[in-house]
Design goal:
eight-stranded mixed β-sheet, alpha/beta, 8 strands, 13% strand, 277 residues, Rossmann fold
């Protein structure tokens, strides 16, 4: 990887929780930090805070609501227009099993089950749209913040219309991220772009965890250290297509290793976001 001060790094969901911590730490290294959030006021607060903490003036703020594929597409267009490179993409934005909606089934603006849309489809579209820019920046990295909570995708009811459960919705969206990671790593293996995913830590004190269970188990620092390792540690140069539990390489759900399931997910995702194969 290039020295941090020469890198352009995009972190999605960077206005609070793990994303805010990761963005702040990366900014301290002198990188050009692109901070994404869905609320203008919170995005401005996060950007001001990171600037004050890091003394880094190379910050950019980008707003988009990931429940709208149109807004995700517009975000990609703005990034392509504004930036001539992206060295690291940290796909972190997400929602939990109960927040929002208190466990009720909700849909995105495009009519897709909300957890699947925000946690997975939005990042699938953003990453695909930015792929050429990331390739041109090689050596580059893509880091997908997933979870150890993974449930097999039922391709007959991906949107969980028959029997909705918030935990299942969350867990299948996180498995979809892992499957996308493995697929994309294979595709970009010879392009100088590594793609890895991780479960950063169990039940950190983030907003979505506290809403779901009221208490934490791990510290935010544990999740920060694990995510920073994938984003910035030179020891992982060339390491791709892996799933990590914290800082340890681990096995994901068995469905993630099934080529046919990954193909079905890829074809479904391309159709849902309006991209050709």
């Amino acid at each position: 990887m290039r020295p941090a001060a020469e890198q352009v790094i995009l972190v999605t969901g960077a206005t609070d929780g793990l994303g805010r911590a990761v963005a702040g730490e990366l900014a301290k290294g002198g990188a050009t930090l692109l901070i994404h959030g869905r609320d203008d006021a919170r995005l401005a607060d996060a950007t001001d805070g990171i600037r004050a903490e890091s003394a880094n003036e190379k910050l950019g703020a980008y707003r988009a609501d990931f429940s709208s594929l149109q807004e995700v597409g517009d975000l990609a267009e703005r990034l392509e227009r504004d930036q001539d490179r992206i060295d690291v993409l940290v796909n972190n934005a997400g929602i939990g099993s109960t927040l929002p909606g208190s466990g009720r089934r909700m849909e995105s603006r495009d009519g897709h089950e909300l957890r699947f849309a925000v946690n997975y489809l939005a990042h699938f579209l953003l990453t695909r749209r930015l792929a050429s820019l990331i390739r041109a920046s090689a050596p580059a990295r893509i880091v997908n913040v997933s979870s150890a909570g993974q449930v097999a995708i039922d391709f007959e009811d991906v949107m969980l219309q028959r029997a909705y459960d918030g935990t299942r919705a969350y867990c299948q969206s996180k498995l979809a991220q892992v499957m996308f990671t493995f697929d994309l790593a294979t595709e970009l293996r010879d392009a100088g772009v590594t793609v890895n995913c991780l479960h950063p830590a169990s039940y950190m004190p983030t907003k979505i965890v506290m809403a779901a269970r009221g208490s934490a188990v791990s510290t935010l620092e544990q999740g920060l250290d694990a995510t920073m390792r994938l984003a910035a540690d030179s020891e992982l140069d060339g390491v791709t297509g892996r799933y990590f539990d914290g800082q340890t390489e681990a096995r994901a759900h068995p469905q993630a290793y099934d080529p046919d399931s990954r193909r079905r997910l890829r074809e479904l995702s391309e159709r849902l976001v309006g991209l050709g194969p």
